[in-house]
Amino acid sequence: MERMRGTDEAKGGLSLDQLVTLADLRSVRDELLAAINRTRVSSPDIAKKWLKSSEVRKLLSVSPGKLLALRANRQLAFVRLGGVFYYDRDDIEAMIQKARTPNSTGRV
């Protein structure tokens, strides 16, 4: 029994004579929730690099047929994996910038 106790303590685990209290559990819970909230807050700033067809259609406000035409005319690059089309966000933004026209004041 002593041998087992020493092994657990060396690994950083609990020994047989240690208890985990409710305060310890609450502390761990609070730390985990804080870490999750920090991650959740920072996640919206990080945009997905690859978008599916439905996401691109919403982003560009186009129909499935128009998106097909953009692919067929090679105006928008894509990758097809397992029957699902993926589009690089950078390619979408480049296509939008290329199609942009200056307004009457000369600003873009």
Brief synopsis:
This protein has 108 residues and is mainly alpha-helical. It contains 5 helices and 3 strands. The model has no long low-confidence stretch (mean pLDDT 82).
What distinguishing features does this structure have?
5 helices; 3-stranded antiparallel beta sheet; 3 strands; 108 residues; mainly alpha; elongated
Oligomerization state: single chain
SSE series: HHEHHEEH
The radius of gyration over CA amounts to 27 Å
The description of the largest β-sheet is: 3 strands, antiparallel
**Helix proportion range:** 40-55%
Looking at the structure, what is the overall shape? elongated
Strand order of the largest sheet: 1-3-2
- N-to-C CA distance: 76 Å
Structural domains: how many: 2
Estimated share of beta-strand residues: 5-15%
> What would you call the structural class?
mainly alpha
What is the number of helices?
Answer: 5
Low-confidence stretches: none
- In total, the number of strands is 3
**Mean pLDDT reading:** 82
